[in-house]
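To fix ideas, we quote verbatim a fold written out as tokens:
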Amino acid sequence: MPVSPNLCRSVMAVAALSLASPAAAELTRVTDDGFVSRHEVVVEASPKDAWLALIAPAGWWRSEHTWSGDAANLTLTPQAGGCFCETIPEVDEPGRFTLQGSVEHMRVIQAYPETALRMQGALGPLQSEPVTGILTITISTVEQGTRIVWEYNVGGTMRYEVPVISKAVDGVMGAQLTALADLLGPVAMPDAAPASDPAEGPVSSEDPAPAGADGGAEAEGKTTEAAKTTAVPVIRSRIPAPSAVVDKPASVDDAFGDLEDSQPRA
């Protein structure tokens, strides 16, 4: 199948950004038709405060990763079927007038207050592709504070090169969790061994405590005496990277732009 020049340019730009951002955490799984991005932070806020902040993305989501350019236009309804949506404001200025628009980023499929939020949706550039993305966010109490685990599982056919787009999306996901942690008060944690299996939310009313809601089993093995304290907030994947804190996310134009130059970019 012929590959459009626009697609080639977009993929090359994302690849350059990924290689230039060594701080981006590694992915936990990359296959020919999908990938899994997993990050984790510990914050000072209580699970209740973490939940209230999580469901109000206008207060922490990075504006450069929105379609309108302003996170204040984001809303999230924390109930099954609820929308993580964005309003595209109307423009009324000399020589130009538009009507108000909107974007659905994700749809809530599970909301378990103070414990787990699961949403389905293809974020950013994935929106134009026939892929399914499941974002599972779990909140649990740990000795140091409140742990937030953020896992985005994407699968399906896409026109992007998976090893390239997965790194760009992983960097943006890490940047969003960093922004949330900054709002809640990040806790410095020692570099530890990989965490256990990805967190899973509750599956039925008979199982009210979500599997993995306690953040999963403690990391296997012991941290060596030479382990160093990482600058906060700590962003860890199951496959530890030399540097796990996302300092500079991929730019929205290159990492979260659409495939065609003629289409809207976000």
About this structure: The mean pLDDT is 74. The first strand starts at residue 29 and ends at 31.
